[in-house]
Design goal:
This protein has 216 residues and is α+β, with helices and mostly antiparallel strands. It has 5 helices and 13 strands. It has one domain. It has a 4-stranded antiparallel beta sheet. Strands 10-11-12-13 form a 4-stranded antiparallel beta sheet, covered by helices on one side. A 3-stranded antiparallel beta sheet has the order 3-6-5. A hairpin with a 7-residue loop joins strand 10 and strand 11. The protein is globular. The C terminus is likely disordered.
């Protein structure tokens, strides 16, 4: 089974810097703490962060990219199995949540899997990205190793950047007044998604065992 964690370029930088995929600091809808969502759908669905209204606009305007991270299925379980262990999630609530996803978002929830803990670097096998009108294509290991801190003096959050082919993308993480994590990013110098990021399709590559240096 192939599993994918769908996110965006702003969050990818911090995943690479931290060395793991983890849940947000504050979960919505009383979700269990520390769970990481993944799907068997290689294109993602409208439940992923990359499909939120703000993130979609940033991708459509060329200011970010949708990101697909291939992860090992080890440690993942069907989402209903995990949520059913939470006292906040009764069978009735799970059924309503599933019906909403199926009827309103047109999602097959059987594709959803979750990990009850963060996903470490050795469980990440590939990282692909796409623009609004582009196909999935890999981000090279060399580029993934370029994440670095560029400004820690800001009161509203440190800024990190990474290289993607011949362009540089910078991202900042900060907390909203409600305590939720939020991210904002931009292409440095040129503010549009570079076309040469998407020279190859993801089916042409496999990146098993990304090196440990990637996350240092």
């Amino acid at each position: 089974m192939e599993l994918f964690h769908h996110t965006d370029l702003c969050r990818l930088i911090f995943i690479l810097h931290d060395g793991n995929i983890r849940s947000p600091i504050v979960q919505a809808e009383n979700l269990p703490e520390n769970i990481v969502w993944a799907t068997t759908d290689p294109n993602g669905d409208f439940a992923s962060i990359s499909s939120s209204k703000f993130v979609r606009k940033e991708i459509r305007d060329g200011n970010s990219m949708q990101v697909r991270i291939g992860v090992s299925p080890e440690g993942f379980e069907p989402w209903k199995t995990c949520l059913s262990r939470s006292t906040d999630w009764t069978d009735e609530k799970i059924e309503k949540f599933e019906a909403f996803a199926r009827e309103k978002l047109k999602i097959d929830t059987e594709t959803w899997w979750v990990s009850p803990k963060s996903v470490p670097r050795e469980k990440i096998f590939s990282v692909d990205a796409k623009g609004w009108n582009s196909d999935w294509a890999p981000i090279s290991v060399e580029d993934l190793e370029t994440v670095k801190l560029v400004d820690e003096s800001r009161n509203d959050g440190s800024v990190y950047q990474m290289k993607i082919r011949n362009k540089v993308f910078a991202s900042k993480k900060f907390l909203t007044e409600e305590g939720f994590e939020n991210f904002i990013g931009t292409w440095k110098k040129e503010a549009k998604t570079p076309s040469n990021v998407l020279m190859k399709k993801s089916s042409d590559t496999a990146q098993p065992g990304l090196p440990s240096s990637l996350f240092k």
